[in-house]
């Protein structure tokens, strides 16, 4: 897609000819053109920011502490921290300057770190670190940007409606706030939630473990900077606030959702969202920015975007089951989809988020909505794929799924392929654990409070 | 209501006989039995935590710094901070110990601060300080706890429905997440929001300044401590997490809300919520805890509460208009209601918030929903009071309102009257400023980005 890119100035950090002195296998997904940010911890040490390159992570607190980045930015102030919070607060000019400084530092012809006596401490194999949620999530919302997803969900959830697509779908990016602290990093266990769902006989609802646990395949944007109360962020300024993107799995308890959702929307049913540990920057994704689908009817002025903000990113969802694991089978691919057809872009979502003047802080995580196509293998959630359980999905070993079972592990992998290199998000992965036993939990609480 | 209180141990901090060496006028609302927490700033100084007593605020960072509180708690670690974040994180045993230490310090017979040479610096007139939002709001949700409000809203917004009350209303506390950073402290200006609303002819929506700007009168609880991902907080443990309560105005752009709300609920229309600067502690409200209305049909086990968690608090809403101000008239009382009839209590809301295992961090602000009664003067929002504008509200000077106008100032005052003293929340106050001019905002942004 690089030919569709519109940019006033070529960005030297995404030059396909760039090479690093760090060895980067061709299919690594973390070439010098990527440099995604994350937060890692070595056993027994404090957490610290890093960037991925090849199969290594560069210790940014260490690099900044040695003064290897101090061009015009105060790298210690930004990076000698247990998280990316200070970096997210710093804003676009700092983000651009830091990325350029890192790109320079890791370039094949730059000796500062390459030949530094402490290089061995500052470049750590990714296999030796634990990745953490890289910043405090100040706000979390989810949009509903895929026309294919919204149409199928309308058919399933509002079967009486003449048009399965809600009339406002093409006029504004429909969104809903979610639990900010429900955002967790890849590999956090996902306990099957319990809650109330409709009873078969239509009487009082039933309490119990969710029977329709689902995933939702999403791309989400991460924001930095802030807007003062009452001041919308105009769509032209989206790039000043969109720091980067993560892959997100918006876990959904469908039976609980269906019972609770009127009139305030999904609430307890959206209990956690798993994100990839690496935040791929807006700059790194520059070559994959494409115009979105044409919008007809025309949207309001505040949603009109002169820059391309859709992204051509592939999202592949893999399911590992207990049976497959026991038989030594690899995970089965259960969905494969791309994000460039999303009806609403990140810039439009951000403009809409702030159109009424609601304030934003650094560290917002905003999902663009379940990414689905019209084909069965493009469906970004099980409720769509199986038509709410009516048509089970059959894996290649003959196993079937309507919704997720305990022991299932879902991993969503995101990447973008370009000329000469692949850009990876890593994966948003989570395994389903058995439901918490509320009776045992209550007895525990009672024994503590009495 | 003190006779309805159920408590194993009498709490010495709410003894009606307690007196302070600080002079407290009878109607102050801040007697020694209250001691609400807030964060204040003197001109040119850093912000710091305080408690209100009489018309003074006690500088808690200063008091802790002098070692006047060090009983069994490390008061410096808790209080020498620009906010209440550390205190909220500390949890119930610390909250109880700190409150007892403060109560002791301010008691008439305790000399430590009363006779301290630096007392004059540590006790500051409230009129000389600016109050700030006292903690980082980690999460914000709004419930829908008043049967009277939900019924009227059902009649107005779903006129075709046979039963205006949704079938799940009596089975679970309906709630929705809101923008955490939209919570602002009293006296923050409220700019009239702009957004999309339905066009009169049913065609494409119209963008413009909100024409149906409304308030919602609420009591909200503030949480501390945390639950790990996947672990519900049982209702018996609610008291370990509910730090206290604030008065909250959930500003609502009704026309924008009506257009956007399907299927994810209100989103951009709920752009800010104003809270009172003082957090009244759960302990201080002990004498006003009352059983809620009997719940029929019976609720699920996880929502069954053995302790009384409803509160007998009066909420009075006053409207000051430009015309009244110019004529020297005081604000008009436009709503007066009490919270003890709310169908769902704070403990039930908290148990429901976490039933699916979604994690919570310290600093949650959870509104219990618009507090309305059946009488016109008990309606906690204008859309109810005026039947969506059909029957304007006439003030005592003859002015009329359907919804709020620029220059209107809404203040919600909360208090509880007991034997010999009144407990005040102070007020959640906000004045409506003219809508932001989006055209000017965009031009400003364009000039910066080009």
Strand portion of chain A: 25-35%
User: What overall geometry of chain A do the principal axes of the alpha carbons give?
Assistant: globular
- Our count of helices of chain A gives 13
Distance between the termini of chain A: 64 Å
Q: Please name the two chains that share the biggest interface, counting residues whose Cβ lies under 8 Å from a Cβ on the partner chain.
A: A-B, 82 and 83 residues
Going by helix content, strand content and strand pairing, the class of chain A is: alpha+beta
How would you concisely characterize the structure shown here?
The structure is a homodimer of 450-residue chains. The first copy, chain A, has 13 helices and 26 strands.
List the helices and strands and how they pair.
Two copies of one chain form a homodimer.
Chain A: E1 37-41, E2 48-53, E3 56-59, H1 60-65, H2 75-79, H3 85-90, H4 92-106, H5 111-114, H6 119-122, E4 123-125, E5 130-132, E6 139-143, H7 147-157, E7 175-178, E8 183-185, E9 190-191, E10 194-197, E11 206-209, E12 213-214, E13 217-223, H8 238-241, E14 242-250, E15 252-253, H9 254-260, E16 273-275, E17 280-281, E18 289-290, E19 310-311, E20 314-320, H10 322-326, E21 332-338, H11 346-354, E22 364-367, H12 382-385, E23 393-394, E24 400-401, E25 409-417, E26 422-433, H13 438-449
Parallel strand pairs in A: 6-22, 8-16, 9-26
Antiparallel strand pairs in A: 1-2, 1-5, 2-3, 3-4, 6-7, 10-11, 12-15, 13-14, 13-22, 14-16, 14-17, 18-19, 20-21, 20-25, 23-24, 25-26
